[in-house]
């Protein structure tokens, strides 16, 4: 595995894992419109555009082109995606 670099915890040919701190109101989306992402809420909470709230311990699949999630509080998220 790689040595962590900034927000990137691991990066290989198969996946990329990022540790993303979010301030209240910041948004989180997939890494590009044609790729999905798997997000794990470590702390705080994220709100979806349809009103659902995701608490710590929740895994959220962001489909391709999905609207971004919004931090309902200061949050920490692990985002796993395919590398570019």
| Count of spatially separate domains | 1
Number of strands: 9
Across the major sheet, the strand order is 1-2-9-4-7
As a percent range, the share of helical residues equals: under 10%
CATH topology: Jelly Rolls
Treating each run of at least 4 consecutive H or I residues as one helix, how many helices?
0
Q: Kindly provide the name of the CATH class.
A: Mainly Beta
Question: End-to-end distance, in Å?
Answer: 17 Å
CATH homology-level superfamily: Jelly Rolls
| Model regions low in confidence, pLDDT < 50 over at least 5 residues | none
- Outline: globular
- Return the average pLDDT rounded to an integer: 92
In short:
The protein has strands spanning 8-11, 16-22, 27-28, 37-43, 46-47, 53-54, 59-62, 69-71, 75-81. By secondary structure, it is mainly beta.
What does this structure look like?
The protein has strands at 8-11, 16-22, 27-28, 37-43, 46-47, 53-54, 59-62, 69-71, 75-81. With 84 residues, it is mainly beta. The protein starts with 7 loop residues before the first strand and ends with a strand. A hairpin with a 5-residue loop joins strand 5 and strand 6 (53-54). It contains no helices and nine strands. Strands 1-2-9-4-7 form a five-stranded antiparallel beta sheet, with no helix packed on it. The chain has a four-stranded antiparallel beta sheet with strand order 3-8-5-6, with no helix packed on it. It has a single domain (20-81), classed as Jelly Rolls, CATH 2.60.120.
């Amino acid at each position: 595995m790689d040595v962590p670099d900034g927000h990137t915890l691991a990066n290989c040919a198969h996946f990329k894992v990022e540790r993303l701190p979010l301030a209240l109101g910041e948004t989180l989306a997939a890494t590009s419109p044609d790729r999905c992402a798997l997000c794990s809420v470590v702390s705080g909470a994220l709100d979806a555009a349809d009103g659902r709230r995701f608490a710590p311990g929740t895994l959220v699949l962001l489909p391709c082109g999905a609207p971004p999630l919004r931090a309902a509080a200061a949050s920490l998220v692990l985002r796993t995606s395919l590398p570019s």
